Amino acid sequence: MEHFVQHLCQQHHFQTNHLLAILRAVQARYLHIPEAAIEQLADLLSIPRTQILGVVEFYSFLHLQPRGHYDILISDSITDHMLGKHAIMAYLAERLQVAVGAVRADGVVSLDNTSCTGLCDQGPAGLVNGLPLTQLDNSKIDQIAGLVNTQTPLVDWPSELFAVRDNIQQTGLLLNQPITKGEALQATFALGTSATLAEIDQSGLRGRGGAGFKTAMKWRFCSEEAETTRYVVCNADEGEPGTFKDRVLLNSYADQVFEGMTVAAAIIGAKQGFIYLRGEYLFLFEPLQAVLQNRRNAGLLGNNILGQVVDFDIEICLGAGAYICGEESALIESLEGKMGIPRNRPPYPVTQGYLGKPTVVNNVETFLAAAAIAVHGGDWFAEIGTDKSKGTKILSISGDCARPGIYEVPFGSTVQSVLDVCGADDVLGVQIGGPSGTFIANDELQRKLAFEDLATGGSFIVFNESRNILDIVNNFTHFFAHESCGFCTPCRVGTSLLKKQLDKIIEGHGSAGDVVALEELCQLVKNYSHCGLGQTAANPILSTLERYPELYQAQLKKISYEPGFDLDAALETARRMANRNDAGAHLAQIGEDHD
Amino acid sequence: MTKTITLDGKTIPFTDGQTIMQAATAAGEYIPHLCHHPEFTPHGSCKLCTVKVNGRNCSACTFPAAEGQDVINNSQELTDDRKKITQMLFVEGNHFCPSCEKTGNCQLQAVAYYLNMLDDHFPLFYPHREMDASHPDVLIDHNRCIFCTLCVRASREQDGKDVFGIVGRGINKNLAVNSASGKLKDTDLDKNDKAAHICPTGAILIKRTGYQVPIGQRIYDHHEINEVTLLSENHHGE
Known about the structure:
The complex is a heterodimer of chains A (595) and B (238). Chain A has 26 helices and 14 strands. By secondary structure, chain A is an alpha/beta fold. Chain B is an alpha+beta fold. Chain B has a 5-stranded mixed sheet, covered by helices on one side.
């Protein structure tokens, strides 16, 4: 192992920025990060071992204890649950003879849950050693169990197990007419970078990740910084449950995304770009490397791009299972090889981003649109959409509908019009923008997808009348508690408290004041958290509490107070120690009402 | 010309580069805080110092003061919410004040008194956390750690060492020390290091110094934390 780690560090030029990539390689090879590797890395990279330990403990795909040779993770997203995840997991555990969360005694296989894998239109889904498994059913599980038990190498597994489909169901302005390779760069160089930036400004393009900051303004701020070393970063850490459009864009439109990044680089004067690809999309890593190499060969990346005095290249960095890294400053921390903890702002990334230098971070879809705008002009884009939301939005649609997949719709479309095209009826409600967004009920389907009304990063989960709202909220609330980075008190403790309080109510232990207490806690977490994760973590509860207060109330007991824990069970140790088991050594959970 | 901000209706001066916390402290105004210490890089994680700046919640310890800011520090809403954030810190760990050596000298306890915290409000987590008594002179009781990172920063920035680090994610965060054994005895921590004396709670204690000052004669037994803090931190604002 010593030789392996030494060689690995050499490959990465002993750069601490590459710590995450190095640890991913150690994990893949040794199924965990051995203590000896931590010692050696601390020495070779000249960083404290606590920094390495911090990273290992932070990311879900890195482990201090060995996982199985086949590490199987099943997506715990609500959409996977709706497609039968619970039964699939139970069957898998039985066939593999391994408990969920455990490693089988022979070390061959381990099984666990994981956050949304971005395969919601083809679930129940999972990952084996980081590679996607889609549309799992009992016959596929039989097949997988056989392959695991015969210890068949992954490369020899039938490829249909790993088939990931694009499911592009409706194209629009952008997906109808992808640009040809180099077209946006030629247009940019012909028009000039300032005029191209003016076109992007004219287009009204706003960030497609959901926050909606004006793209041209971000690029201009960055280009006006005194510091001339600048970076372009593409945020492909698509972690919001129910979102998978970036997977499709990177699978089938990668050239255009990279071209958008290169246009941005030409405009802001960046020489280096990064695409931060979520660890769940490992299967896209090699194909994307090939696309980048083709672009270098075609003179579209590297030195003197298309004969101009523009040098730019793109490096792919893989995440390792942390939703928080979709937050731009946490993403930058992760790119620097650290724990994904959002930074204090100001300063913003456009002034001090990667390595403290001005950095533009944009979503995959934003770069895709920017490349098209460079070719077709700002007016072409701005003709479609609404006053404050120009162009189209690419939606990831999953849940209860006939045709889940990717839909490009004009901004301003009503939710109902989208439900009509994807084939959804008997609708109970729709989760717009994922768990951090809003749940809307079936009497609000005329609302519009636009920054003016329902802002969205593209997650669109449909629920029909057979679904239980509290199950949905429970899944989302547990998700946030699991993904909180833990930096600030209101989110670290608050998301866990939300989980406890919601569980208490759902399990029927809530009493009169408990819904009020829940709502107060929601406001606290929302108003005081450090970043977007905490500020939106209470949205699933708040948006359903507002619409269905009676659902929560119906869960409550008709008593004034019940303790949050089992009183009698808490006395068990004392009873054992005192060797007592008489009536006086027991407590009723609910006391007599005292007037 | 002196630049100013408004703090609870009072005009106070600031200089460029100062945070709201620094400007307030220099002006003799106390903003509750636990993870902030004037000698170290601001961290902004405990969120007790949240103030309203032009209507928006900001951490006073990290947010730069700027001309025209209308800052609210003392309001019933902020006091209530700061109390709840303090309660969160209490329920997350295991804080048993009556049996803790730090009682009366503990900033967490003192802030709780200042905010009129009379109960835990939230359900207790009762986490299982270890003690590390391996070091000859210094003890770590992880039950009382609130992840303020003051020991981490003090060790790095003042002692020129890297004894401590916060590792892990979410509610599973923990304080780790920089040795292969994971024990404090195998680090280069010295009992005279700043890091050994900076803990606002009783998580890091110096051995054989316990109870030298009787309970009842300790810092916060006679003074509120706002007085004590302003007196000790004011010099740093100058």
